Amino acid sequence: DVSVEELDCLLQEGRVQLFDVREPSELLDTGKIPRSVNIPLAEVEEALKMTPDTFMAKYKCSKPSKEDIDIVFHCRKGNRSQKALQIAHQLGYTKSRHLSPGFTGWFDHWKDMNPNKVETVSK
Predict the structure, then answer these.
(1) Strands 37-38, 97-98: parallel, antiparallel or unpaired by DSSP?
(2) What is the SS3 assignment for 30?
(3) In angstroms, what CA-CA distances link 41 with 12, 27, 99, 101?
(4) Catalytic residue list contains 75
(5) Where residue 48 falls among pLDDT bands split at 50, 70, 90?
(6) At what angle do helices 4-13 and 102-110 cross, to 10 degrees?
(7) Residue among 110, 105, 104 at smallest CA distance from 29
(8) Fewer CB within 10 Å, N or C, the chain?
(9) In whole angstroms, how far apart are CA 104 and each of 32, 100, 111, 118?
(10) Alpha-carbon span 71 to 65, nearest angstrom
């Protein structure tokens, strides 16, 4: 598991591939963690099986490799990201982790101290 503080450090250092497994409509409603890439839970397995070129075309970022140690999944409260983590591990992405308190934990932590830690999403 990754804590809010650890994820913040990873983001500041540019050492994380952060995947938000919530539905796109949730991002419109609540915003997102900056630099996260939205891959809804229902697409995670298919996405991780894509070729790097197909992944790049669909998600506008590089596909992670199975050896990467910086893959982190998150959702609203941690349940869906736990499922995404299980899928990733089954596909050989065994070093991937998840933000256990989810976006809610991230938002609650930063809302008063630094609201810039949440990015607005538009259609």
Answers:
(1) unpaired
(2) helix
(3) 26, 13, 14, 17
(4) yes
(5) very high
(6) 80
(7) 104
(8) C
(9) 10, 10, 10, 11
(10) 9
Token pair listed for 27 = 């991002």
Give the residue among 32, 39, 14, 56 at the shortest CA–CA distance from 121: 32
Catalytic-role residue among 2, 33, 71, 75: 75
pLDDT at 11: 92
Distance CA 47, CA 123 (A): 22
Residue 42: pLDDT over 70? yes
pLDDT tens digits, residue range 88-121?
999 999 999 999 999 999 988 887 666 667 767 7
pLDDT band at 87 (very low <50, low <70, confident <90, very high): very high
